[in-house]
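Deliverable D5.2: sample structural annotation.
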Amino acid sequence: MHWSGHHIWMCVATREPPGCDGQTLKMFDQQRDGNLYKIWNRLCSGTWFPPPVLEKRIPKSNGKERILGIPTVSDRIAQGAIKLFMEEKLDPIFHADSYGYRPGKSAHDALKQCAIRCWRYSWILEVDISAFFDHVKHDLVLKALEHHGMPKWVILYCRRWMEAPMQSCENGELITRTRGTPQGGVISPLLANLFLHYAFDLWMEREYRGVPFERYADDIVVHCSRMSDATRLKNRLSERFSEVGLVLNAGKTNIAYIDTFKRRNVATSFTFLGYDFKVRTLKNFKGERYRKCVSVNGAPY
């Protein structure tokens, strides 16, 4: 494994709070070289055992909470080293319309592509997966890693990271995890992308070839020509996700009409990556009015 400790340090030196050991970035940095050597030595010898991730609860606008799992500083660096190794091999195989947490791609790339396709397609299927990161099946992730020829030591560490217990923020109790990959982990987005590459991206190519979509992690929008197409796809996605251990949130998976003609009793807006897309009356350069779906809260498209 190619190791550039200082490069990895810069990649993970964020403002994340300390993990279960209480060590901050500042404390780690006081003996950086020695600490980096210890991590490298244990990773190379197969003796890196991730400590528990620390539970952190983030309030959501709907009154519920998002649960994060915060690794220790040392474990973030260890994850960062393996992630860089894996990313070189996995990123080239990912779908062109997968935008989340990938080098050279961004949320704004996904929004721009979505806006362009809204001019060509009349219907939108806004897909919502219930608690996606909590339901990722470990065996399917490990199977995908084996399929792509990942070394056994990489698969070993990915298994350990996915199975690392979570330490309760209330009483310190260790919570065993048999599925899911913790939000807050450095390597979790890459494992999540690999999982959805097979659970959704390639399935769409196989079953609905030519139907375009944008996916940013588990935030997905699919473009359809007819309402009947969107309805059938919604039903099939529910079945597909059930096959791989996921749950389609039927209450938040919406169908919207975004074309020029007014329709009653049909949603005419959807939200993607925090931006609202709605049908609005616009004017062309001649001053003529027309209706089209546009982002109305700040996206420059």
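Annotation notes: The domain at 5-295 is CATH 3.30.70.270 (Alpha-Beta Plaits). The mean pLDDT is 89.
The annotation will be released with the project's public dataset once the embargo ends.
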